[in-house]
Design brief:
The structure is a single chain. With 568 residues, this protein is α/β, with parallel strands linked by helices. It has 2 domains: 224 residues, D-Maltodextrin-Binding Protein, domain 2; 235 residues, D-Maltodextrin-Binding Protein, domain 2 (3-Layer(aba) Sandwich). The strands form 5 sheets. It has a 4-stranded mixed β-sheet with strand order 6-9-5-10. Strands 3-12-4 form a 3-stranded antiparallel β-sheet. Strands 1-2 form a two-stranded parallel sheet. Strand 7 and strand 8 form a beta hairpin. Helix 21 packs antiparallel against helix 22. The two termini are 15 Å apart.
């Protein structure tokens, strides 16, 4: 396969010409000797040591077309690039810039033509292409000396799954990752506690209990308005998804996981080969059972039809929906108004009493250095500098609505501990209980925890271990800005801290040659078939037809390509 075919590029010839122009060649870069650190620089100072001579780094720039550039500045010459030059002696040069929407395509074209920048921010597919064609250099010899303690903490927090993403087959570190929050990929059941109380019901934990409670929410007037206008389980709208990789607000992923079905995931079989979750017998079983819930009126009859699932949710018409911890932000208005008391649980449990959940990718953003880059440690310094100063810049006014770090800081990614939300939940719980004080917490790797601890003191009422809506101070002005986050952490993340779950990771996140041409059609066929079965427009036997068609129309070839790639 030719190099340029590893990345899917669907564009006109004119667009290709316009995008590829400006992809600076790597061959003439890096011919100079690498700039060394100042003589006598202590090892502990290396992560943020200023070079004795200017180090110029060539990047590709992602420009937000809606960002306002202050007068006297530009994308390449602004507050952040000036600080890098002043304090680290790093001069940033953009070989090219592309809009946020065009950046990935521009980077893919540069990879395909072997004209990559020295240091670059790439997605997972691009990273694997760079690895496959030996276009980037190992970074492990720089990691120990140049990664700051905070950055090391973030990388370590991702555990073994993150390490698998950033190391090659020889065990060499090939990228600096921005870890995804573990909690962000775990979908859980959100349920109205006030509706349970009104009907005298317990929190459902099994499939049958969930079906019973959801039916009661539909038929027993839980909101007490005398109308038949409530929804048991809210489903995805016409712009949402029944299944997804990672966090999927309003999707039905936990209903599938109850039967250990993981649509859209590539799964490792007992013999070590990779299989596709959507075509497994467990998925057929899940679809059959979910369709029964729909037929019984337990699942929103307007699933995949309504334009916005938030509308009935915010109108107080929904008893149950599925999504990650951050869904507390989605229903924040109902929390602040005191009209809905939402709780989160790992439900429904599988027949063996365990909660199975698919996980998000450990990272989707990688910073890498080309083979020709003479100062790859500069990538660590740029990232270290961001981590060390991002919060301070907000306080000092360097970061503002006009000069956001996400829009202007070179190689920008959001860096945090993968388990930051769980850590915050545990710290706040201990703080409220009086087991720790703020002096006991090292905030250097926890960007928002100090603010959370200050806010929870004002917003949480006694008893501190009861997170019912009535025990929050809803009248405080601080509630408008801080309460949704605190509810997300203390209520939304409670299952991840207090309950056990079995994580299931995607065994493959790449893109094969056949996927480039056929994946969009295969995915569309899958989504349409699943929707028809669930909504009663097709018999469950349609699943077998789907599996046969999926295999014949490229699926088997894709599986072969994936297994061949992973076996090398």
């Amino acid at each position: 396969m030719k190099l340029k075919r590893i990345i899917a590029i669907a564009c006109t010839a004119a667009m290709t010409v316009s995008l590829i122009s400006g992809c600076g060649g790597a061959s003439d870069k890096g011919q100079k000797e690498a700039v060394k650190e100042a003589e006598g620089t202590a090892k502990e100072d290396l992560p943020l040591a200023k070079y004795p001579e200017t180090v110029t780094v060539h990047l590709g720039g992602k420009m937000n077309p809606n960002a306002k550039i202050p007068k006297g500045m530009s994308f390449e010459d602004n507050s952040y690039t000036r600080l890098l030059k002043e304090n680290l002696n790093i001069q940033v040069v953009y070989d090219w810039t592309a809009s946020t929407s065009d950046y990935d395509e521009k980077m893919s074209l540069c990879i395909g033509s072997n004209t990559i920048p020295e240091i670059m921010n790439v997605n997972a597919t691009q990273y694997r292409a760079l690895l496959k064609y030996d276009m980037i250099q190992p970074l492990d010899k720089y990691f120990d000396d140049y990664a700051s303690d905070a950055l090391k903490s973030y990388v370590k927090s991702g555990g073994e799954e993150l390490q698998k993403c950033i190391t090659n087959e020889d065990g060499e570190l090939m990228a600096i990752p921005a870890p995804n929050l573990t909690a962000g990929g775990v979908n859980e059941m959100w349920i109205r506690q006030d509706w349970l109380d009104a009907l005298g019901l317990d929190v459902p934990r099994t499939w049958d209990e969930l079906a019973e409670v959801a039916k009661a929410f539909v038929t027993r007037d839980p909101d007490g308005n005398g109308e038949n206008d409530t929804i048991g389980i809210l489903g995805p709208g016409n712009s949402d998804h029944m299944n997804a990789v990672g966090g999927n607000q309003f999707g039905l992923d936990p209903l599938f996981s109850c039967f250990q079905s993981y649509p859209q995931y590539w799964l490792k079989s007992e013999d070590g080969s990779v299989e596709y979750g959507s075509i497994q017998p467990e998925t057929k079983t899940a679809l059959e059972n979910i369709s029964k819930l729909y037929a019984d009126g337990v699942i929103d009859p307007e699933t995949l039809v309504r334009s916005d699932s938030k509308e009935p949710l915010l109108a107080g018409k929904v008893g149950i929906f599925f999504g990650p911890w951050w869904c507390a932000y989605t229903f924040a208005d109902t929390t602040l108004s005191g009209s809905a008391d939402w709780r989160a649980y790992f439900t429904p449990l599988s027949e063996d009493g365990k909660y199975y959940t698919h996980m998000a990718e450990p990272t989707t953003q990688y910073v890498v250095a080309s083979k020709d880059c003479k100062n790859p440690e500069a990538a660590f310094k740029i990232i270290n500098y961001l981590i060390a100063n991002e919060q301070t810049w907000v306080e000092e006014g360097v970061t503002s609505t006009e000069m956001g770090t996400a829009d202007f800081y070179p190689l920008y990614n959001a860096y945090d501990n993968a388990d930051e939300i769980e850590t915050s939940n545990e710290a706040l719980t201990k703080y409220l209980a009086g087991d720790i004080s703020m002096d006991d917490v090292d905030f250097s790797t926890h960007k928002l925890l100090k603010n959370d601890m200050e806010a929870v003191t004002e917003l949480k009422k006694k008893p501190y271990d009861d997170f019912s809506l009535k025990y929050w101070n809803l009248d405080s002005d601080l509630a408008k800005t801080n309460l949704p986050r605190l509810v997300a952490i203390m209520v939304g993340d409670a299952p991840l801290v207090n309950e056990e779950y079995v994580p299931v990771y995607n065994a493959y996140n790449g893109q094969t040659e056949t996927m480039e041409a056929k994946w969009a059609n295969l995915k569309k066929m899958e989504e349409e078939t699943f929707a028809k079965i669930i909504m009663g427009k097709a018999d469950i036997s349609e699943f077998d037809t789907f599996v046969k068609n999926w295999k014949n129309q490229g699926g088997d070839q894709i599986l072969k390509e994936i297994n061949d790639e992973l076996s090398k």
